């Protein structure tokens, strides 16, 4: 079982509010178009975005979606099912998406190479990178209109802008600074990339105003025509959010869930995306929330000791679960749910495990929690 440790880094105050689009996937789409001389259709970009969003919802680090429903997404985006189906078939036909039967017997759609896109040790020299597609995109008519007008080049412009904005957002201290970061495109470049006349480009920009503040620069009226030299793009507030992961546990939980997937698949246990969510919520509530105030020794206010302890505890519980399942002579049935079963495991093993934490760290954590919350810390009740 591989175990990934999370590198400590400075907390990012503002971040994009959305789901990941691996940069390497975008590169592979570009290479496909260059080598095969085939344009990825707008409907396929639409389907790809819905698959990536579903991967985010199901929190599946292997790029497998168990509950993907094309009809649901067609209704959500106000698009014809036949159009979405054609977009999905293109991705399947050219190997970007395929269907797989999991060891549990359940079908899943799999985004090719997603695991390599998101796992550092498997990228073979590729930079592990991604940009964020804002959730609010699905609340606009941008996707439907770009598909209706058969405009895949506009999807590619959108991806390019979001890719560049990600780095600027990482440096912001609050949403009020959003206007400080912008991307500029020459109108001549937009006309060339989009294969449109200036009027059609301006119409497309009007569509993009749902998520971008757009400023036309160097505007001139020549005769009866409007000339624009440059276009400036700025993100709207709806695309970002404050980073509320105060105790820096989300990357850690994501790594744990990836290994949980391997165990459940290896045991051929039938599970739904909700089951994975319930297990990780149980772990966060029963364990992480108890020890989250533990920091390293004085002079090192980081969480490396706590994270190492959480890692050891989680995999210890997972190993016990795996061993118990393998010892069953008859198919095992969960009395209530998988999440509830794991909650019991975490709760049962926690009291003994916290006794292994050095007393000074326990004491300091209690003081920090009591100072912040003014209630008796759960850690105190376990170590009396």
Structural description of this entry:
By secondary structure, the protein is an alpha+beta fold. It folds into two domains: 14-242, no CATH class; 250-382, no CATH class. 51% of the residues lie in helices and 13% in strands. The protein contains 15 helices and twelve strands.
Task: Summarize this structure as a short list of keywords or feature phrases.
disordered N terminus, 3-stranded antiparallel β-sheet, 15 helices, globular, 384 residues, 2 domains, alpha+beta
What's this model, at a glance?
With 384 residues, the protein is α+β, with helices and mostly antiparallel strands. It has helices at residues 23-36, 42-58, 70-77, 81-93, 114-118, 142-148, 152-169, 187-194, 198-208, 250-266, 273-291, 304-326, 338-354, 359-373, 378-382; strands at residues 14-16, 18-22, 64-65, 97-101, 107-111, 130-134, 183-186, 212-217, 220-222, 225-227, 230-235, 240-242.
Q: Helix content range of the residues, please?
A: 40-55%
Q: Tell me the strand percentage band.
A: 5-15%
Averaged pLDDT: 85
Radius of gyration: 24 Å
Our measurement of the CA-to-CA distance between the termini, rounded to an integer number of angstroms, reads: 35 Å
* String of helices and strands: EEHHEHHEEHEHHEHHEEEEEHHHHHH
Large-scale geometry: globular
Number of helices: 15
User: What is the β-strand count?
Assistant: 12
Low-confidence stretches: 1-9
Secondary structure elements and their pairing?
Elements: E1 14-16, E2 18-22, H1 23-36, H2 42-58, E3 64-65, H3 70-77, H4 81-93, E4 97-101, E5 107-111, H5 114-118, E6 130-134, H6 142-148, H7 152-169, E7 183-186, H8 187-194, H9 198-208, E8 212-217, E9 220-222, E10 225-227, E11 230-235, E12 240-242, H10 250-266, H11 273-291, H12 304-326, H13 338-354, H14 359-373, H15 378-382
Antiparallel strand pairs: 1-12, 2-6, 3-5, 4-5, 7-11, 8-11, 9-10
């Amino acid at each position: 079982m591989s175990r990934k440790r999370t590198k400590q880094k400075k907390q990012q105050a503002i971040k994009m509010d959305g789901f990941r689009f691996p940069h390497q996937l975008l590169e592979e789409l570009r290479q496909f178009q260059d080598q095969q001389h085939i344009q990825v259709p707008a409907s396929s970009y639409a389907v790809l975005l819905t698959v990536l969003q579903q991967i985010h919802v199901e929190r599946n680090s292997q790029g497998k979606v168990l509950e993907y429903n094309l009809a649901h997404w067609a209704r959500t985006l106000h698009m014809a099912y036949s159009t979405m189906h054609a977009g999905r078939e293109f991705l399947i036909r050219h190997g970007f998406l395929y269907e797989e039967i999991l060891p549990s017997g359940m079908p899943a759609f799999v985004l090719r190479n997603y695991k390599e896109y998101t796992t550092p040790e498997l990228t073979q020299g590729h930079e592990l990178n991604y940009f964020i597609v804002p959730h609010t995109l699905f609340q606009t008519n941008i996707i439907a209109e770009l598909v209706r007008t058969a405009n895949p080049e506009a999807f590619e412009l959108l991806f390019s802008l979001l890719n560049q904005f990600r780095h600027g957002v990482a440096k912001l201290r609050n949403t009020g600074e959003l206007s400080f970061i912008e991307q500029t495109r020459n109108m001549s470049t937009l006309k060339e990339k989009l294969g449109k006349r200036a009027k059609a480009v301006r119409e497309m920009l009007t569509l993009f105003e749902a998520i971008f503040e757009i400023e036309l620069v160097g505007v001139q009226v020549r005769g009866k025509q409007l000339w624009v030299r440059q276009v400036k793009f700025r993100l709207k507030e709806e695309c970002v959010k404050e980073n509320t992961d105060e105790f820096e546990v989300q990357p850690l939980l994501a790594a744990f869930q990836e290994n949980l997937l391997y165990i459940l698949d290896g045991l051929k246990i039938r599970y739904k995306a909700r089951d994975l969510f319930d297990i990780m919520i149980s772990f966060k509530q029963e364990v992480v929330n108890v020890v989250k105030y533990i920091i390293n020794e004085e002079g090192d206010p980081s969480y490396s000791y706590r994270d190492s302890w959480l890692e050891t505890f989680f995999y210890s519980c997972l190993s016990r679960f795996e061993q118990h399942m393998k010892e069953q002579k008859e198919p095992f049935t969960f009395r209530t749910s998988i999440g509830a079963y794991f909650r019991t495991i975490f709760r049962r093993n926690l009291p003994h495990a916290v006794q292994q934490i050095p007393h000074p760290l326990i004491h300091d954590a209690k003081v920090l929690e009591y100072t912040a919350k003014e209630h008796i810390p759960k850690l105190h009740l376990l170590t009396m």
